[in-house]
Specification:
Blueprint: H1 2-13, H2 21-34, H3 38-78, E1 81-84, H4 88-91, H5 101-109, E2 114-129, E3 132-141, H6 143-149, E4 156-161, E5 171-175, H7 176-182, E6 189-195, E7 201-212, H8 217-222, E8 223-227, H9 228-235, E9 244-249, H10 255-265, E10 270-273, H11 274-277, H12 279-286, H13 288-317, H14 319-327, H15 332-368, E11 370-371, H16 376-381, E12 387-388, H17 394-420, H18 424-429
Parallel strand pairs: 3-8, 5-7
Antiparallel strand pairs: 1-9, 1-10, 2-3, 2-6, 2-9, 4-7, 5-8, 6-7, 11-12
Length: 431
Amino acid sequence: WYGLSFPYFVSHLSKPCADKKSTCMILSLAWKNIWRNKPRSLIVVFAVAVGLFGGLFSSAIFIGMVDQRLSDAIRNEVSNLQIHHPGFLSNREIADTIPGAQNVLRQLRKDPRIKAVSERIKIIAMASTASGGAGVKINGVRPENEMKVTALQMKIADTSGSWFTSGRKNTIVVGQKLAEKLKLKLRSRVILSFQSVNGDIVYGAFRVEGIYKTYNTSFDETNVFVRNDDLAALAGLQSQQFHEILVSLYNDNTTDQVVDSVRNTFPHLETMGWKELMPDLGLMAEYTNAWLYIILVIILLALSFGIINTMMMAVLERTREIGMLRAVGMSGKKVFLMIMSETTFLSLTGTLAGIIITVPVVHYFQLHGLNVLMFAKGFEDIGFAAMIYPRLDADSYAGLIALVMLAALLSSVGPSRRALRLRPVEAIRTL
């Protein structure tokens, strides 16, 4: 079908453009030539298709993992951006609260790009039980506001308690990793000890109300959540004093714009987007597409040697034929174009086959997910989910075709030069 339909299409396409008939004829001839030895051409097409499928699918998995990690980090850990006292992140001093926090909150809520804001008290403390102790970060939150900014309440299973719905004082929500480490269960008692604003060491007894579990075990092990008012009373802070304001946006792509806007509005405060708060994820997001092209370049480089070898063999087998074409008046330019076209058609056929295989496979797993639960513990240790949703956009496929065209052109240089070096008289005498 390919060997018949494409020349038919090319020949009809060339009818309205008589000045391009020669070029169209060469293209048609080149297409026919690559199917003269079908087994060899199909092997090359298969190799290109399988190689590109492997590269594209592995890249789609990586992109999906990064997307999910970013989504989890923004939704559960840092939100889109945070606001602090200028010295707070450096020193973690309990006295470094946000000046004029209520005015800041009012101004932020007027911005139509901002979905919600939540204020926090942040204190480094020691959590102790009869089974041991661990260093933790206490997050003093207003539960109703926190639910609008983060999705931690959704990370509490039905059998693992609730997100501050009991109404009791001095309740705490802990991560599953910390609960396992300190052998905590619902209603277990945990002692939090830390330095108050006056410099005194204070102790507070809290009851476990909920146990959450995210895909980041290090976050689960180090972060606990209590009511803002309960923590402020222990720390000696006023009810309107906070260390941190989390800001959630309607559109994640506007993060940089909102960060600049907030910095201009509150120059005396430190405003940081998620890329600055989690630079490792920012770097990962920046180089996601670069990773895709690095993989594809390596694969195409390896495949190019196979394509070059195939075309060299084709030229050697057709030495007599090429000599006759040169003898009857075909110019070296047209011979070069013919060999280059054969290489390009062979590469593009394999590429299209690879894309045809990749698109439905990626789409299926993007909808249903790729389950790697056997590696769940290892993935969660570095903050990734065990259910991966691969993703590739149209730009990735367009970039792939551009790379294949470039690789085909470079691969065609050697065989084409070989054909040009053939002398017509000597080539005709070749048996």
